[in-house]
Amino acid sequence: MMQDQRDSSYLFGGNAPYVEELYESYLHDPASVADHWRDYFDSVKQSPALDGSNRTDIAHAPIVASFAERAKQGPIRTISDSADSEMGRKRVDAQQLIAAYRNVGNRWADLDPLKRTERPVIPELEPAFYGFTDGDMDIVFNTSNTFFGKTEMSLRDLLQALRETYCNKLGVEYMYIADQKIKKWWQEKLESIRSVPRFTVEDKRQILDRVTAAEGLERYLQAKFVGQKRFSLEGGDSFIPCMDELIREAGSKGVQEIVIGMAHRGRLNVLVNVLGKMPTDLFAEFEHKGPETLPAGDVKYHQGFSSDISTPSGPVHLSLAFNPSHLEIVNPVVEGSARARMERRGDMVGKEVLAVLVHGDAAIAGQGVVQETLAMSEVRGYSTGGTVHIVINNQIGFTTSDPRDLRSSLYCTDIMKVVDAPVLHVNGDDPEAVVLATKLAVEFRTQFHKDVAIDIVCFRKLGHNEQDTPAMTQPLMYKTIAAHPGTRKLYADKLEAQGVLPVGTGDLMVREYRSAMEEGKSTSDPVLSNFKGKYSVDWAPFLDKKWTDEADTAIPLTEWKRLAEKISIIPDDFKVHPLVEKVLKDRAAMGRGEINVDWGMGEHMAFASLVASGYPVRLSGEDSGRGTFTHRNAVLHNQNREKWDTGTYMPLRHVAKDQAPFLVIDSILSEEAVLGFEYGYAASEPNTLTIWEAQFGDFANGAQVVIDQFIASGEVKWGRANGLVMMLPHGYEGQGPEHSSARLERFMQLCADTNMQVIQPTTAAQIFHVLRRQMIRQFRKPLILMTPKSLLRNKEASSPLAEFTKGGFHTILSERDATIDAKQVTRLVMCSGKVYYDLVKERADKKLSNVAIIRLEQLYPFPHKALAAELKKYPLLEAIVWCQDEPQNQGAWFFVQHNILENMAEGMKLAYAGRPASASPACGYAHLHQEQQKSLLIAAFAKLKGYVITK
């Protein structure tokens, strides 16, 4: 029975970690494995070393594959009755035991402070599973493949060492990682100290001080502000010494900036006890006495904060990101902010900047943006050199504690395995183990620049918030919690019992902290109030500025021609695709003024002129290098290249000797995380033109949380200016409901307080000027661009060279037909976007001379002055018709109504021409699309009927 169990256990059947462990033992010492295993490994064909040297190694993959194939045929081992073979079998079994503890020892670790369930039965961790008996306990085995400090150990000592290392208060998952160096690193770090922290008396006093601070703030707030929401940290108190250690350890490794993202639980505690916010300022917010300087403001547990903290290794700048209640959405924002800070320092691997993300157990397992953010962690253009993830694991999620309803995975952190990130599970009631886990996590991140997670298994003393009564639904759990003395007391009593601290020290610290609260004193490491880092950004020039549509965006003709030539030439030995070759030839001709400038050239010249003037450009999206509609071709590909990762050329990186960087990124297939990343980047870098481009404008649906909670409202809630540009291809051309509309109406609903710009440019000159205006004006507002699709190659949307060297962006484009006499016009058709060109053609076909057509290029802020000036041109005007491609309940119609009415004369009429209201953004039937398009054009010029407003 036992033999059957062993043959079918996870150790057999081709389990890669076990085979690799056995193979690693063989490489270290061939005598450490049984003869038949040694012969087997010797027989595997050797392959050249990856480093190209003459040395050869046995590759792991053939070993594992061969083993898996043999396992299908039955038990691997063939054991004779000889004593030597029996001893060989036991040596193999000892290696299997070591592998088992490294693989699944974490599942038997003592992690739950509440001890609600008994440790699980894991047969593979018991010597009997391998046939060992009590009589085998004193057999000495070769343990040179371990890091316990001995090359030989008795089975008894080996078992004790393994349990101390992998099954105590710290359980580490790392054996699924593919990189052998990383696995060996963890084995050495853990086994050399048996996962037992070695702290000085001063270290332990510091840990107790931080746990006391964590508990002290919560209890003070509970007593002083009864019932007010604060999302208490009680039960997860070890999180504060974790953060304290993280900052100190990271500082000692050279990190100078830490960007932190976290949700509500413990946020106020972090603000006071980590970032150094003055308690008096927090109390004022509880008493509703804080300053109200923003149009809207936000609740205190959404607020961000920045400070410079003095550490033993020097100043460290801490930045806690502002974020809403949408759990985990702050993750990509933090990563983008960290990336911007890295690039500002020229730190491309993350030596000086660290991103820290704090999660809840339910949120990290349940929110998809976690996976999207992890997917970017090692991708060019998005990597931040490894993020430290910390989970405040309350073991209850939001309201549930039934394991069947928490999640589908064993651990809440199992999502980390998708990027081979190690996870350190640690008992939150052991602050020293938590601090050790933090130290190891920072060391790992410093060494390998990969993500790592710390799972602090703790509990939630109060409810989800302070107005909640969790015992109503979780009576058993909260009976246990009610009887729990608290992490601080447990640790203080332990130190006093050990004689590390004098008896009464714990109570004295409690009184001292409360006294500090009463006096409103700072309770964290010293805050350097007058410190200004070399790489800090001054946002002052961009703040408190009045809106203006004006900006000097034209460039001199000589500069135009110089830049146009630079972006049209390629190296002599570089062969582009024939279609791209034609694009470059056309661009050269546009630069010389021989043909009108098309959309792609207008964009390119905006980018070229900006980088030449010192403004970096960062453009990302799912197909941004080429452009979804092949209009951009910013990244050229050598058709003769021999390797996939070589042979590209970007003309925009070669326009001037000392130009600013130009970066275009073909992003991962994500909207929410990538847009959040770019928002975070732009929030930390006001001098870079940061653009996110949707493949189709409709795809912004997948990033709606970022749009609602950050882009549209960040300034009025948090006072955070941001110059991010969103390019959203938009236009009704019969491509169906998911490839037509960027949901313009949603953006219009979000417009208020001059919070952002919504623009639908229709010519190459307009896109050129609006992109340049975004950087040249001395304020930063998000720019929502409804970019075209068919217009990208429409010659009527191209612009003469003179429109780039003179003038600027026009919020309204006036009637362009010189044959239309303004004094004879009785009807004005207003529109926005592609439909303008359809209207012009329809008017020409009908040979109408009393109808003028103008384009509203800037929908918000609405250009009242420009419209008023436009209407004065038409003394006989009787009616204005708003014509749009979108259905009546979508598009800009309901937003522009009152703005147009405000500028109309008494007795004038306002009417709508467009598709009827629809539950879908667009129809999917080609014939129906054509019928609707024809109808709306007819309605724009026909007798007014239906919904008509008279001023």
Automatic annotation (TrEMBL):
Superkingdom of the organism of origin: Bacteria
Pfam families: 2-oxogl_dehyd_N, E1_dh, OxoGdeHyase_C, Transket_pyr
Domain Transketolase-like pyrimidine-binding: residue ranges: 597-794
First-level EC class: oxidoreductase
Keywords: Oxidoreductase, Thiamine pyrophosphate
Cofactors, names only: thiamine diphosphate
UniProt GO BP: tricarboxylic acid cycle
Cellular component, GO annotation: cytosol; oxoglutarate dehydrogenase complex
EC number(s) on file: 1.2.4.2
One function term, GO molecular function aspect: oxoglutarate dehydrogenase (succinyl-transferring) activity
Family under the similarity heading: Belongs to the alpha-ketoglutarate dehydrogenase family.
Physiological role: E1 component of the 2-oxoglutarate dehydrogenase (OGDH) complex which catalyzes the decarboxylation of 2-oxoglutarate, the first step in the conversion of 2-oxoglutarate to succinyl-CoA and CO(2).
NCBIfam families from the UniProt entry: 2oxo_dh_E1, PRK09404.1, PRK12270.1
The name this protein goes by in its record: 2-oxoglutarate dehydrogenase E1 component
Organism: Polynucleobacter meluiroseus
